[in-house]
Specification:
single chain
Length: about 350
C-alpha cells in the first residue's frame, strides 16, 4: 500500500478538469499566435546567445533574453501548471531557420517554462520524435522512435513541449485529454476500478536504468497528494516480464482499459493537427497525450519530425515520495524528472540517433 491509499477521494473542480466541448470550438482560449514583435524578440535573443557561443544545452533565460515576450511566457507557464494544462504556440517561421537556430529558439522559449532534463539513456535534452525504424513490439523500444500509434500517456517530467518540424503524409494526429477528468469519471462511475490504479504497478525502465536501481520500478497510475491528483501513465511501460514480478491481475487490466477508454472518448479527447512551426506544451501531471499511427512521405527529407523538450518547472506542484523512483529528485523549485543513467552527460543533438533497442 502506498501513502496515496489513505487520501479521501474527492472530485477535482479546478480548471485542469475539462471536457473537449469546452475547447474544440474555442481555439482562441488555447492557441497563441506569435506576433511579428515576438518573433523578432526570439530571433534577437538567438543572435545574442549565438554571439556568446552558448552551447544548446546551456541556454537559459539569462543568456536568451526575452524582455516583453518573456513576461507573457511566464503567464502562459503559470496557466500550464495551475490552469487547464495545455497551450499551442503557433507561427514560428522555421522554414527560414537553420537546424541549429530552430533548436536554439525552441530551447530558449522552453527555458521560460522550465529547465530541460534528459529524455533518454543518452542524456538528450533535445529529443527527436521520428520514425527510426525500431520495432514497436520490442519491450525496450521507445515508441517515439517508431511510426506506430502511441496510446494515451504522460512523460517523465513536469512539462513536455513539442515543436513540429515536418508533419506526416498521413496520420500522426495529436490528441490530449484531461487526466483529472478521467479521474472524476472513474470516481463517479467505477470507483472500484479507480482504487486499482491507486495501487502500485510495475513499470519497465526499458534498459535505461539509474545507478542502484532494478530494471523496473513500482508506482501507481493515480497519485493523490497535498490536494492534487497526479497521473503518470504509459501502457507500453507496464511490464510483467521480470522473474520477480507476478502476472497482471484481471481487475487491473479492466481498470486500465476503462481509464484509457475514457481518455479516448469524444467527450474527453481534444484533437489537434500540428502544423509546421507549431509548439505544443502540456502539464504532464494533469494532461494525457497520444498520437495516431502515421505514414511518411517517400522523400526522407519530408519524414515526420518533431523536436521535444522535457522540462522541470520551478513552480511545479508537490509530488509524493513514490515519484522519486522515476524522477530521482522531487523537491519543488529544483531540477527534477527525466531519465538518469550513470556517467551520461546532457547534450542537445541536432539529428536523431537510434537508441539502444
Amino acid at each position: 500500500m502506498t501513502e496515496t491509499t489513505t487520501v479521501k477521494r474527492e472530485k477535482i473542480t479546478t480548471p485542469c478538469a475539462w471536457y473537449s466541448k469546452e475547447y474544440a470550438t474555442n481555439q482562441e482560449a488555447w492557441v497563441v499566435e506569435l506576433t511579428e514583435g515576438e518573433i523578432k524578440e526570439l530571433e534577437d535573443a538567438y543572435e545574442h546567445c549565438h554571439s556568446l557561443s552558448i552551447k544548446l544545452e546551456d541556454i537559459s533565460p539569462s543568456n536568451f533574453p526575452l524582455k516583453e515576450f518573456g513576461t507573457k511566457l511566464k503567464k502562459i507557464q503559470n496557466d500550464l501548471i495551475n490552469g487547464r494544462g495545455f497551450v499551442l504556440i503557433r507561427g514560428l517561421p522555421i522554414e527560414k531557420y537553420s537546424k541549429e537556430q530552430t533548436a536554439a529558439i525552441f530551447l530558449g522559449l522552453g527555458a521560460y517554462f522550465g529547465e530541460p532534463v534528459s529524455q533518454n539513456g543518452q542524456g538528450h535534452i533535445l529529443g527527436h520524435v521520428k520514425d527510426l525504424g525500431n520495432d514497436p513490439k520490442n519491450p525496450l523500444t521507445r515508441l517515439y522512435t517508431t511510426n506506430a500509434k502511441h496510446r494515451f500517456h504522460t512523460d517523465s517530467c513536469d512539462i513536455v513541449g513539442l515543436l513540429c518540424i515536418q508533419p506526416a503524409k498521413e496520420g500522426g494526429i495529436s490528441s490530449i485529454s484531461s487526466s483529472s477528468t478521467v479521474y472524476n469519471e472513474m470516481l463517479a462511475n467505477k470507483p472500484n476500478l479507480l482504487e486499482e490504479l491507486i495501487q502500485n504497478l510495475c513499470w519497465d525502465r526499458k534498459g535505461e536504468v539509474p545507478e542502484g536501481k532494478k530494471g523496473y520500478w513500482l508506482q501507481p497510475v493515480i497519485n493523490p497528494h497535498e490536494g492534487h491528483v497526479n497521473v503518470i501513465y504509459d501502457r507500453s511501460y507496464f511490464t510483467y516480464r521480470f522473474s520477480d514480478i507476478g502476472n497482471m491481475p484481471s481487475s487491473l487490466v479492466s481498470a486500465l482499459d476503462y481509464f484509457e477508454s475514457l481518455a479516448e472518448s469524444p467527450e474527453l479527447r481534444l484533437d489537434m493537427e500540428l502544423k509546421k512551426g507549431d509548439m505544443q506544451f502540456l502539464h504532464n501531471h494533469t494532461i494525457l497525450h497520444s498520437r495516431t499511427q502515421y505514414v511518411d512521405f517517400d522523400d526522407v527529407s519530408l519524414k515526420r519530425h518533431l523536436l521535444r523538450l522535457w522540462l522541470s518547472a520551478p513552480n511545479g506542484r508537490p509530488l509524493p515520495k513514490v515519484f522519486e523512483e522515476r524522477y530521482g529528485n522531487i523537491e519543488v523549485g529544483t531540477k527534477r524528472g527525466g531519465i538518469l543513467v550513470p556517467g551520461v552527460k546532457l547534450c542537445a543533438p541536432l539529428d536523431p540517433s537510434v537508441p539502444a533497442g
